[in-house]
Specification:
This protein has 639 residues and is of the alpha/beta class. The protein folds into four domains: 219 residues, 3-Layer(aba) Sandwich (Rossmann fold); 79 residues, Beta Barrel (Elongation Factor Tu (Ef-tu), domain 3); 111 residues, Elongation Factor Tu (Ef-tu), domain 3, CATH 2.40.30.10; 176 residues, Rossmann fold. Helices cover 29% and strands 26% of the residues. The chain is built from 18 helices and 28 strands. Strands 7, 8, 9, 11, 12, 13, 15 and 16 form an eight-stranded antiparallel β-sheet that branches. A six-stranded mixed β-sheet has the order 2-3-1-4-5-6, with helices on both faces. The protein has a six-stranded antiparallel barrel with strand order 17-21-19-18-22-23. The longest helix is centred in the C-terminal third of the chain and has 20 residues. The protein is elongated, with a radius of gyration of 35 Å. The two termini are 68 Å apart. About 2% of the residues have low confidence.
């Protein structure tokens, strides 16, 4: 029993020390990605008996391989995948051989699932690009190679599959190899290897095939077991982005995270970003004890000799090897959201363990992932890729993605939905001289004409409301001001962008030279209408409380503001109610102390086209009615 325990412990220790290779498979529909991985696991004896039994049963029931076992069913687990015989979502599989451990991401081939491939390939060391020997290098082949290059994958295996369907022709293999090499020279892929195989029949998958004696290279598994990827990590630039400040008691204060890159050693002098304070590494602690040094991707806790204020998002680096510390940078961006990009959005950006806000200043170009052509575009849609310029609220500590994946990548998060809307790979910082102007030639033309650079629709989308005018009319003392002010308060509490405009405020300032004659009353309302229009154009709801005594004046106001966004409500209060509400005003008018008071010596015309009529004694009910109206007409959704 003791010997058995020792053997198990030795086996586990050896297994723990095995190198891990993360890889993805990519290719066109029906190129055999899932079949290849299934065959790899089957032939390397990595399947349990119940898995084999289920595979054989499912192959007969829903398989697409005729009388053969459909190895793709090991990965295509979704109902839609099995029905259509295609991969839709990323499927991960783990297996191990005597030499190495593997995590395989089987990614979909369709262009509409580009974001799925980006997700699956974000941590991959190697990409297997499958090519159907009958079809050769096609559009999808180029797209997947470009995406692998974009993700910084340094090792590519071009698996020329279905060689059994071209009679294992060496000539066909060489044609495809030459065609692919002519394309890949345009990209920066340092290590490209070609393996002819048949995933369905097993040729050159685990064992080299006798049916292709002209091929003298390794089988796919042999290559995967021996490809050297450990040097792909950046061991030169020490980056320790603090994730958590560990304080179990008052005697201990450590800083925990995974080492992003480089090597951190006991006794190293380190600098804290952004404070620039320095100290030395006192201890490097793990669950199993202390270490003399740590390297990526080890998770450790570091203590320093000096008490320094360090928080999540700060970074420890060597003083003589600093990352970029910038707010502006260029990046390649992959749009992941179903909702198209809105350049006026202030996104949240998550970079390393740092979070702040960011805006997209400019889209340099969009890349057509099928042709690699670049084009100008105003916004990105789902799965689109391009080069952009970003500015963050506070500086980030980063390296170019090609130099350091861990500190050169980021995600953008929608501030409303909190969905991950984009992933990015930083190209490099932007000097102030090279930053794009926020004002284009087209913008300058608009400015010269007095046109706004921000569309009303952009304001409304940002504010989640429509810029429209709520106009409350009625006699002096009818209660229209009480309703208007109550409405303003309720909208403010609900998060709306609303402005109240009333006659008394304007007459004490902007319109103080105007009297109460019919002509000046008309000019007073004309100015009010233009103010409302300007605010509505900027997405702001305006609330107007004005007598506006006849239909002619009200129509003039509606024409200026825009009839489609002018909503009039009438406070239905008779003269007796108004007189009791404002007795001093009406007494002066009746005694002749003031002139041109509607309802006394000037006619007030009751509107016949008001949206609603209100009883002044039911202010709460009136308020609820207007709020319901705003919600029903999608002016503002009351929460």
């Amino acid at each position: 029993m003791t010997d058995t325990k020792l053997n198990i412990r030795e086996f586990l220790d050896q297994d723990q020390k095995k190198d891990l290779l993360r890889l993805l498979t990519a290719g066109s529909v029906d190129d055999g990605k899932s079949t290849l991985i299934g065959r790899l696991m089957f032939d390397s004896k990595m399947l349990y008996e119940d898995q084999l039994a289920a595979l054989e049963r499912d192959s007969k029931r829903v398989g697409h391989a005729g009388d053969d076992i459909d190895y793709a069913l090991l990965l295509d687990g979704l109902k839609a995948e099995r029905e259509q015989g295609i991969t839709i979502d990323v499927a991960y599989r783990y297996f191990s051989t005597a030499k190495r451990k593997f995590i395989i991401a089987d990614t979909p081939g369709h262009e509409q699932y580009t974001r799925n491939m980006i997700t699956g390939g974000s941590t991959a060391n190697l990409a297997i690009i499958l090519i159907d020997a009958r079809h050769g290098v096609i559009t999808q082949t180029k797209r997947h190679t470009y995406l692998a290059n974009l993700l910084g994958i340094k090792h590519v295996v071009v698996a020329i599959n279905k060689m059994d369907l071209v009679d294992f022709s060496e000539k066909r293999y060489e044609e495809i190899r030459d065609s692919y090499e002519a394309f890949v020279t345009q990209l920066d892929v340092p290590d490209v290897n070609f393996i002819p195989l048949s995933a369905l029949k097993g040729d050159n998958v685990v064992e080299t095939s006798d049916r292709m004696p002209w091929y003298h290279g390794p089988s796919l598994l042999e290559f995967l077991e021996n490809v050297h990827v450990s040097s792909d990590r950046n061991f030169d630039d020490m980056r320790f982005p603090v994730q958590y400040v560990l304080r179990p008691d008052i005697k201990f204060r450590g800083f925990s995270t995974s080492v992003a890159s480089g090597i951190i050693r006991k006794g190293d002098e380190v600098m804290v970003l952004p404070s620039l304070k320095k100290s030395k590494v006192e201890k490097i602690i793990t669950y199993d004890g202390e270490l003399d040094y740590a390297f990526p991707p080890q998770s450790v806790t570091v203590t320093l000799e000096d008490e320094i204020d360090i928080s999540r998002g700060d970074m420890l680096v060597h003083p003589d090897n600093l990352p970029r510390v910038e707010r502006q940078f260029e990046a390649m961006l992959v749009w992941m959201d179903e909702k198209e990009m809105n350049l006026s959005t202030q996104f949240y950006i998550k970079h390393a363990n740092n979070n702040t806000k960011a805006r997209i200043d400019q889209i340099r170009y969009k890349v057509d992932v099928n042709t690699l052509e670049k084009s100008n575009i105003e916004k990105f849609k789902l799965n689109e890729i391009g080069r952009v310029v970003l500015t963050t609220t506070k500086p980030l500590f980063f390296d170019p993605y090609k130099k350091n994946k861990q500190t050169g990548s980021f995600i953008l998060i929608d501030p409303v939905t909190h969905n991950t809307c984009a992933v990015g790979m930083i190209i490099d910082r932007m000097g102030s001289k090279h930053l794009p102007s926020r004002i284009t030639d087209m913008d300058k033309e608009k400015i010269a004409k007095g046109e706004a650079l921000i569309k009303t629709e952009e304001y409304e989308q940002s504010y989640n409301q429509k810029g429209e005018t709520i106009w409350i009319t009625g006699l002096h003392g009818s209660g229209k001001n009480e309703l208007a002010f109550s409405l303003e308060r309720k909208l403010f509490e609900s998060g709306a962008k609303a402005v109240l405009i009333d006659g008394s405020s304007l007459r004490s300032g902007l319109n103080r030279e105007l009297d109460y004659s019919p002509a000046d009353r008309a000019e007073h309302l004309r100015r009010v209408a233009h103010i409302c229009k300007m605010l509505n154009d900027q997405g702001i709801i305006t609330i107007g409380s004005f007598i506006s005594r006849n239909s002619s004046l009200r129509n003039q106001v509606a024409e200026i503001i825009g009839k489609d966004r002018f909503h009039m409500f009438y406070m239905d209060a008779d003269l007796e109610y108004c007189r009791n509400n404002k007795p001093e005003l009406y007494e002066k008018a009746e005694k002749g102390a003031i002139e041109n008071l509607p309802g006394v010596d000037m006619e007030y015309e009751i509107p016949d086209n008001a949206k609603m009529l209100f009883n002044p004694e039911e202010n709460e009910k009136n308020l609820d009615a207007i709020l319901d109206y705003l919600a029903t007409n999608k002016i503002f959704p009351i929460k």
